[in-house]
Amino acid sequence: MDRILKLREFLNATPNDNFLRHALALEYIKMNDDASARQLFEEILAASPDYIGSYYHLGKLLERAGETELAIQWYEKGMTAAKEAKDQHAYNELQAAYEDLVF
């Protein structure tokens, strides 16, 4: 809980810092607060579709929630963003997660 409080404190100073918002979302996942994590991931990706790391974690969260079709859509969006950013590592991770669901 201390980490969440500290991250929120940092976010008060820089509310649009995607690194901090992503880190906070991961902490929420650790606390089994998927709703708060999902909201943060969706906010990050709405504002910054090039913040590629959030696609994978949002997709995994949606998988756990049983929202397979939505997870697939986010993986697809993430693969497109990773390809545009020439981030092959992220692309490969997203593609593997996508293929696990589709095939």
CATH topology: Serine Threonine Protein Phosphatase 5, Tetratricopeptide repeat
Amino- and carboxy-terminal Cα gap: 38 Å
What does the main sheet amount to?
Answer: none
What share of residues are in beta strands? under 5%
The helical percent reads over 70%
H/E series, N to C?
HHHHHH
Alpha-beta classification: mainly alpha
Could you give the count of β-strands? 0
Name the average pLDDT. Answer: 97
Kindly describe this structure:
With 103 residues, the chain is mainly α. It is built from six helices and no strands. The longest helix is centred in the C-terminal third of the chain and has 17 residues, at 68-84. The protein is globular, with a radius of gyration of 14 Å. It starts with a helix and ends with a helix.
Please give a handful of descriptors for the protein shown.
6 helices, mainly alpha, Serine Threonine Protein Phosphatase 5, Tetratricopeptide repeat, single chain, 81% helix, 103 residues
Draw up the topology in text.
Blueprint: H1 2-13, H2 18-30, H3 34-47, H4 53-64, H5 68-84, H6 88-102
Helix pairs in contact: 1-2, 2-3, 3-4, 4-5, 4-6, 5-6
